[in-house]
Amino acid sequence: MTEPSPSPTDALQVALAAEHAAVFVYGALGAQTSQSGQPTLYETLTRAYALHRDRRDHLSGVIAATGGEPVAAEPGYALPADLGSVRVVRARALAIEEAATSTYAYLVANTTGPDRAWAVQALLDAAVRGLGFGGRPERLPGL
User: Apex CA 128: angle with CA 55 and CA 110, to 5°?
Assistant: First the structure.
């Protein structure tokens, strides 16, 4: 027996919840990185934070425009115990982008029209951004 497909609004809510988490964790990662000591990493994290924040805000707006109530952020999200090394910060940032590709693949599969086109772009961006954190190219990112 097959599971019923989620509604497009439900899929948007899943993506919004993932973006809430990404914004929280990127904020913590940026706080563990020195702008003077690791300027490239710091700038990459700052750009990723801003992008995920913009995606979060976009998704909230789309859900609200359809009459839905955007899912709220959790009070906190799990962080690795030791964020004191560049290696751990990069690994956690890569994990965020890999999760984003899966989330946006899910959104692509459960939306149509402009929402799907937006999700495709978000998926591609997350896949490319993950390469900057040490990810490996995949034929079908997120799947």
Answer: 50
pLDDT one-digit tens code per residue, 62-111: 999 999 999 999 999 988 778 878 899 999 999 999 999 999 999 999 99
Question: Which two tokens mark 83?
Answer: 């964020």
Total domains in the chain come to: 1
Say if 48 falls within a structural domain.
yes
Domain limits for position 29: 14-74+86-132
Is the CA virtual torsion 130, 135, 138, 143 positive or negative? Answer: negative
Of 19, 23, 43, 48, nearest to 33 by C-alpha is: 43
Structure tokens at 36: 């003077």
Alpha helices in 2-38 (DSSP H): 8-31
Whether 2 is covered by a domain: the verdict is no
Once rounded to an integer, what is the mean pLDDT over residues 32-39? 88
The verdict on residue 80 lying in a domain is no
CATH number at 51 reads: 1.20.1260.10
Q: Would you say residue 79 lies in a domain?
A: no
